[in-house]
Design brief:
Strand content: under 5%
Structural class: mainly alpha
Number of domains: 2
Oligomer: single chain
Order of helices and strands: HHHH
Low-confidence stretches: none
Radius of gyration: 17 Å
Largest sheet: none
Mean pLDDT: 92
């Protein structure tokens, strides 16, 4: 069965960048993402969720900040 879905322009751009090759379908990209997610153990999922929340709360440093702290 085939169906059509709507995605925002930025989501489409992200999916385009995630393609392994230009002729890879969006369905193949999404299947690969689902497979990758299903392989994560519970601890890794928790770590990812915590990292996303920290990012949303602004609790992160940019590459430039880290380089400056390290004197690079």
């Amino acid at each position: 069965m085939h169906t059509t879905i709507q995605v925002k322009g930025k989501v489409k751009e992200t999916l385009d960048r995630m393609k392994m090759h230009p002729r890879e379908s969006y369905n193949e990209v999404l299947e690969r993402m689902i497979e990758d997610l299903s392989e994560l153990d519970e601890e890794t999922r928790k770590d990812i969720e915590e990292a996303i929340n920290a990012y949303k709360e602004g609790k992160y440093k940019t590459h430039e900040q880290v380089k400056q702290e390290l004197g690079l």
